[in-house]
Every structure is written in C-alpha cells, then in structure tokens.
Amino acid sequence: MQPNIRIVLVKTWHPGNIGAVARAMKNMGLYQLYLVDPVDFPSEEASNRSGKALDVLEQATVVTSLSEAIADCALVIGTSARDRSIKLPALSPEQCAQKSMTEQQQAPVAIVFGRERTGLLNDEIQQCHFQVNIDTSPEYPVLNLSQAVQIICYEIFKVFQADKPNDSQLTEDDAYPLQKELIAFQQHLSDASQATGFINDRHPGQTLEHLQALFRRARPSKKELSILRGFLSSVEEQAIKKR
Amino acid sequence: MQPNIRIVLVKTWHPGNIGAVARAMKNMGLYQLYLVDPVDFPSEEASNRSGKALDVLEQATVVTSLSEAIADCALVIGTSARDRSIKLPALSPEQCAQKSMTEQQQAPVAIVFGRERTGLLNDEIQQCHFQVNIDTSPEYPVLNLSQAVQIICYEIFKVFQADKPNDSQLTEDDAYPLQKELIAFQQHLSDASQATGFINDRHPGQTLEHLQALFRRARPSKKELSILRGFLSSVEEQAIKKR
C-alpha cells in the first residue's frame, strides 16, 4: 500500500530538479508526481537525474494550474512561504508527515513546492491549508528543490514505516552466548591475566573490572566469544611452558 | 559555533554531487568537507551545483585516503554498508545526529559517504565505528549521494537547533581514543596473537578480523584501551621470555 500523497511541483525551471524529485519520491515510497506547467518536460535531463525512478516521471500528471492538481485533495500543504502577507498555520516536516499520513486515509493529500527562485505566489498559497517549514541555517536558508522534497518525503516514510510491524530478524551469526558462558569467559580472562603476571592475584585492583565492563558492553556473539577464549588459551599455554 | 562534524566523501564520481553536497551542508550549518581522491575536482559543475556554498567547496580538504581524512577523529560513522560479513552497530539518522552532536564536543566527528555505485569497501568500513542507515522503500533503496547527505545533515541541524541544555556531557573517563591510537591497538593485538601462536602470520584467516570488529564495536575508552594494551604487553613479554 502506497500512501495516497502527491508531490506537486509548480512551474519548475530546471528539468534536472524534476528528475531528482522523482528519485527522492520513489526512494521514500511515493509515486504520485504532479507537474504544474513545467518549463521543460519531458526532458532528457529529467530522465537522467531520475535514476531508476523513470516510472514516476512517465506516470507524472502534467496540468496547467495548481487548482487542477489539487482539485480532488482534502489537505493541501505548501512549502516554506517565507514572509507573506497571508500566513498559513506552520508545520514542521515531522508534523507535516504525521498529518499527511493520517489524512491520506480519507482523501489524497497534496504537498506543493514552488518555483526554484520565487517559491509560491500569493494566489497559490491561498489554496493551501498549511505551510511546512524546513529549519535551515540562517547563513544559507535556501534548499535545492529536490533536497526539500527529499526531506519531506523522508519524514513521511518514517511515519509510514513506524506503522508497520518490525520485521528485523536475528541471524544465526548474531546469536548471543548464555549468561553462564559469559561468566566462564570472565573467569578465563581473569586466569589468563594472572598467568602472564598482568594482574596480581592478591591485588587485582579495578583493572579486571574495567576489562569485564568493556566486554559486557561489547556483547560478543557466540562466535566472537569462542575466538576470544581461543586467544586466552594460547596465552595460558605460553605462561605454562615458561614455568 | 559550528558543530565539529565533517562530511567525508570517498572517491565521488560525479562533480555535480560534490557541489550539491556542499550546498546541503551549508543549508544545515555544516562547513567541513573532506574529499578522498575525488574523480573530478575542482570542477565547474561542482561549483554550479553548490549554489551559494562555494565557500564550502573552496575550503574543502582533499586527501588521498580515508585514513588521512579521519586520523584526528574519535568517532567515525559510515553510511549504509548494506550486506557485509562484518557488521557495524547501526544507527538511525536521528541517533547518528544525537551521537555526533554529543561527541563533537571532545574531538572531530566524521560521517563517511562511499562511492556513488559501490559505496564503501570493506577496508573502509573497517575504519568506522558505526554505520548509519537511512530507511528507504525496498522498491528503490538507493538514494542519490547528495540526498543522503542532506538527510543526515538535516537531522544534525535538528539536534543543533533544539539547543537543549546538553545533559549528556562527556567525562574524562569516557574520552575516546583517536583513530590512530585505535589502529596502533589493532596492530598490537595482531602482534600479540602471533606471538602466542594463536594466529599464524601466513594464514591469519578471518579470526583477527572478527576480533577487531568486536573491539571496534565495543569502542574502548582511552582508559580501557590502555588496560588492554597493558595486558597485550604482558602477553608479549611471556612469549619473548619463552624463546
């Protein structure tokens, strides 16, 4: 199931950006691209920049006005309108993602991105219900169009993923030793440290404790534990031969 | 104050991507760009794609190997290693941002991005302490390089912005060794393993690699590393006496 969320690009100037947007969308599981009066489309540069998201470009819906692109939507979110006379309630990218994922169950959601240089015009902003603002450094606050789309789609995908049951499985190689095996290892470490004279039986101090804490934290797998014990055995053998 | 976090690009093929990365970084308040053996740099295309981040490109540090780029770093995070035999502990982009912002107080943090097509090689992954994975759609899981950088930098900027009184302060005891100190330890471990006969110089197999992966994952503190080296020295002494 794909989220019923469309990305709407208004009068995009640079075809490379359109391609990069298609890729950014598909990477995050979104497929509905709407192009309002694009300056140069279809174009070879758009195709090149789309990577393996050519299908998103080919299925893109080209329209002549924003109102056409959003006619069947119930929620329309515009991107960073900067300072405008008419202000919309502002959402962070996370809030935008939450709201979009909730509302797409009912009707298509549109997230609208303006022109590269001038953004959305006032009459376009007035067709949006919210604006989403990506926080940026004041030193250089203007993101490339496709990068802005990437961030918005990334936040949507996070919400989409969170709703799914976790399918991460443990493999055989990841198997962890039992507690009793770990304790036997700690004893082995202590024996070997004494065998080389590294630790004095009578004054062990905190050295061994530090080492043991380190190995607890590392959580060796069964396999790693067996390698460590092999090394310690080779150390003990040396020490015995010496005596 | 800029975060002491550097973005390291390994053998980037496409100069446009380098420019787009510079822009993505500056948009999110990051300025330290390291380029490991870039295929085409400096280049007009990189400059064009950087927008108003030409300063980031001009200040970029070009080096010939990953180890040079990260020698003075204490935390090195690699991007999405896909399926590899030696696994690094995985971070989400948010966790990567939290960890980087905390640890950059002590020493520079490096976030490493691999080649466009083939990513990071095994010997490069082995120089990282963690990997960061950006969740993507299984239909098309490969992000454009600059888009991946954008997401990572965006999450860092969120943490930077949140400007919480950072309660996760580093204490002297938690201080981490620099990469070059870790490499010296790995060498010491290898020497000691050979000295006891645990590992045969001519047929080291994967045993040592497994051990090294374990210690990378454990991330010994400076103090723990010095205890480990003390133990290894005592092991070597035994072996020498024996001869």
Automatic annotation (TrEMBL), chains A, B:
InterPro entries recorded: Alpha/beta_knot_MTases, RNA_MeTrfase_TrmJ/LasT, SpoU_MeTrfase, tRNA_m1G_MTases_N
Query: Could you confirm whether the keyword S-adenosyl-L-methionine appears in this record?
Result: yes
Reactions that this protein is recorded to catalyse: cytidine(32) in tRNA + S-adenosyl-L-methionine = 2'-O-methylcytidine(32) in tRNA + S-adenosyl-L-homocysteine + H(+); uridine(32) in tRNA + S-adenosyl-L-methionine = 2'-O-methyluridine(32) in tRNA + S-adenosyl-L-homocysteine + H(+)
**What are the entry keywords?**
Cytoplasm, Methyltransferase, S-adenosyl-L-methionine, Transferase, tRNA processing
Q: Which SUPFAM superfamilies match?
A: alpha/beta knot (SSF75217)
Where, per UniProt, does this protein localize? Cytoplasm
In terms of CDD domains, this protein maps to:
SpoU-like_TrmJ
Q: Just give the chief location class.
A: cytoplasm
In this protein, which residues make up the domain named tRNA/rRNA methyltransferase SpoU type?
5-154
What does this chain do?
Catalyzes the formation of 2'O-methylated cytidine (Cm32) or 2'O-methylated uridine (Um32) at position 32 in tRNA.
The annotated subunit structure for this chain is: Homodimer.
Gene Ontology biological process terms, A to Z: tRNA nucleoside ribose methylation
Q: Return the EC number.
A: 2.1.1.200
Q: What is this protein called?
A: tRNA (cytidine/uridine-2'-O-)-methyltransferase TrmJ
| Source lineage | Bacteria, Pseudomonadati, Pseudomonadota, Gammaproteobacteria, Oceanospirillales
Which PANTHER family does the record cross-reference, listed alphabetically? TRNA (CYTIDINE_URIDINE-2'-O-)-METHYLTRANSFERASE TRMJ, TRNA/RRNA METHYLTRANSFERASE
GO cellular component term, pick one: cytosol
Name a GO molecular-function annotation.
RNA binding
Q: Which family does it belong to?
A: Belongs to the class IV-like SAM-binding methyltransferase superfamily. RNA methyltransferase TrmH family.
